[in-house]
What we know:
The protein is α/β, with parallel strands linked by helices. Helix content is about 25%, strand content about 20%.
Amino acid sequence: MRSLFLLISLLMISSCNTKVDSSNNTLPNIVIVLTDDQGYQDLGSFGSPNILTPNLDKVSKEGARLLSFYSAQAVCSASRAALLTGSYPNRIGISGALSPKSTVGINKNETTIAEMLKPLGYKTGIFGKWHLGHQQEFLPNNHGFDEFIGIPYSNDMWPVDYDGKQVPADHNLAKRYPQLPFFKNFEVIKEIRTLEGQAQLTTELTEAAVDFIDRNKENPFFLYVPHPMPHTPIAVSDKFKGKSEQGLYGDVIMEIDWSVGEIIKKLKEHKIYNNTLFIFTSDNGPWLNFGNHAGSALPLREGKGTAWEGGQREPTVVSFPNLIKGEQTIETPMMAIDILPTIAEITGAELPKNTIDGKSILKILTGEDKQSPQEAYFFYYKSNELHGVRYKDWKLYFPHSYRTLNGREGGKDGYPVKYEMNTIEKIELYDLKNDISETNDVAAQHPEVVEKIKVLANEMRSKLGDKLYNIEGTENRPVGRIN
């Protein structure tokens, strides 16, 4: 397998007319940077009018902007499960955002990207937010990662009110959440109790990631950096306070951009950047009811917690100088489930034995093909409700309820406003090529498209189920549970 990969790699590198790095690595390095609740517009290269992201803008010029890249679900744990396993989260039993009281996590029988790469000799590290189970059997070190530094779940799962102050013991938050733990492998090495502590997270995790590169520069490695920010409560170190024209939220994004710059600089310092697949994306769209402490999904509709485009279409850039041409803008639909099989094709790793949903998008990234390998992408939410389907340039929604601000402004300075609930009463269809903001329902004008998507949806319902139609799937696998 490895000799076949080496031959393929040399041919691909030769065909791309790129310079091979002067490192001892033959297998490519893999770096994935994942933000939390970032909006589609929240990068300079994606149209932000007032957030400067020079490092990510440069990466996009050296590689590709993916304009139609989706998270697999519009919520934390589910989207992360999909990215790491190549499976829709409802296939593997992960839904919602796991809490400190959850007794479930990623099943030991699922294969993560880290576990897939370990047989090839990869060193693997995660520095950031895990959120796939906080009990020991679910932690990253039991799922293929050699090193873990970070938090086990979202940074708002702590006994601290919106004002940033610890609450008394009889407060509801104190009953729901313990102090926020910060792990090194299986050990809690400190607790984060203040916004000042949160403000150090991006820097601490970046320093750990850079150190990991230093120590593994002679080995192929998989580096996964799932930043806790800009999920609320947002906080930033002193070096970026007041730097953005978009206030604290913009400061936070600028610090994440700095973090990317530090990682890229280290890769280039060790002359391994050209041989590294670098992916930057977000787990879902912005948490809009937090107002000025949330990002912008414009020109997309809605945000986090919905299947609308603003909930799952993410600002995504990819680079790999040895294989991917620079200055590309790619509009072909892709999803986080496709990352694992793409890495498998690039590295020659064996795919998981369990059925996965993702398919390699390597030919799209290299410019060999413009067609998605997937006939459609399916947008599930809540425990197992099929809300929408992306088919070519079309997006169809089935009747369901969703949260919205209905045009109202969000909250201010860390305090959210309440969402309202809207209901889609009938099937709606949108032409994303001509209506990216999903303002004009064209279902009545295109009945043949509606019927085609309904057939695809029914095929998926038979596999993964759909609670909206009281359908049990035949291919769902159990979530991991503590004994």
